[in-house]
Amino acid sequence: MLYLQNFFEITALEHPNSIAVDDHGKKTTYKNLDFKANKLANLLLTLNIKVNERICILTKKNINLYISILATLKSGGCWVPLTDQFPEKRIKFIIDTTVPKAIIIEKEFYFLVKKYKKKIKIIIIDEKIKSNKYLNLSDISKQKKNKPIIKDANLSSLAYIIYTSGSTGEPKGVMVTHLNTSTYITNSKKYFTAKPKMRFAHVAEIIFDPSIFDIFICWHNNGTIVPMNKNEYKVNFLKFFEKNKNINILFIVPSFFEKLSDLNMLKSKSLKNLKHVIFGGERLSKKLVKDSLYSLPKCNFYNVYGTTEASIISHWHKINKRDLKFDSMPVGKELPGINTMLLKNNNEESKINENGDAHFYGSQVSIGYWNDNFMNKKYFKENPTKKPIFEKIYNTGDILYKNKEGLYFYKGRQDSQIKLRGHRIELHEIENVFKSNYSCKDIKVLSFSRNNSTYYSDLIFYIRRSEKLKKSKNFYYSTSRKLLPKYMQPTNIFLYDKDFPRNINGKINIDELKKQFIKYIA
After folding, report:
1. Per-residue pLDDT tens for 100-141?
2. Shortest CA distance to 428 belongs to which of 324, 328, 309?
3. Could you tell me which of 139, 137, 100, 140 has the C-alpha nearest to residue 116?
4. What is the C-alpha to C-alpha distance for residues 27 and 21, in angstroms, rounded to an integer?
5. Under a CB-based contact definition with an 8 Å cutoff, are residues 51 and 150 in contact?
6. Fewer Cβ atoms within 10 A, N terminus or C terminus of the chain?
């Protein structure tokens, strides 16, 4: 097994003049990127960085980001991604919790971290001046260009910590080791083949783990990273491809790609070089599958599933037309580094086509959450079954089922399964019923409790209407009475003619939807 940085270093050694990063024409070779990362890594070692010590990184999605990640790994440290899109309270929480040895930033973000300058070493990677307040490019350039020698490291050492949203209101820091990621990247070539010098779109923000795929799967295959780093692309996704017409590989949230489908843009010449599109992070609709297969017949499409705790991707499926026979798109079969158990309430394993709470174990599974004993005990448990498994079992919180062909299907979340007036309701089930209705483009169903009572809970339907068929609320109330049993009827309906509010990862912003209902009943 290799350390995470080794996947880059091997390619840098074998193909030094290949292009590692192409940021809108600003091209950097593997050799040059390796040279810069080694210098920054050697500067970090002058700070007495030890294995597993944290280094926070706050830059834009550009060459400085890739230098910082590689340098942190080369120094033996563990990188912790930050973003200026986090509220300052969240940045403070992550820095105070992880207690980093250093913070690598770009100059424009100095105001966000300058209060830490007395106790944490700050490195401004894009500034070159004499300063006693922080280290910067002038200090980096003085360092040795040789690859640092790391002592005391092993595959169980931390590679990165990514903070995800927590049910307690505070984010959870998922600890991922070199073994976790190395298992995944090593096995990736068994199910996904990328030809050398293919160009990978880096769409996900670095605070989300699909970035690990975009970066390290790319470098492992002697590819080129093309960062999607302009706000205009979020407004008009096609512009990214118009300016980067030779993108070959795209890892994307389905609803983001769906924007192209909605505007009949999938046949654009700008997309003609796409060879592989990987859908992940959301439920994949049949409509998008049909549109994609029809519009881009020479492209391979995949549906994947995974959690940050399972090191990016745990299940992988190459989509074909035969999949349209299923009620929902399969997320595929588990990867070699993951073992899946679907458990019922009595901790017995579910049978074929029977829903179960998804639990994982194996070499891809995280060792737990940073400095969070409560969440570790809740989600990383001792083996609850009679199987001879002698490692912690991770409870994903997701509900899956497996069919007789060995394919897994995502059913929903344990926390989206509610009990209302004596009835157990799966909110995703309601959403699926409504999505089959021609007048509903998208829907999100949420449950609200009044006075902590499940009896007086509200079911709120947020419906995005079709552009061509803008029906009234009364129409949807009437439709729900036809399609759903009485206990699944909506208490309130909110209509949208444009897209739902979304988080920076492209997923629906549930908090913003909740605020609308809270404001309504206030």
Report:
1. 999 999 999 999 999 999 999 999 999 999 888 999 999 999
2. 328
3. 100
4. 6
5. yes
6. C
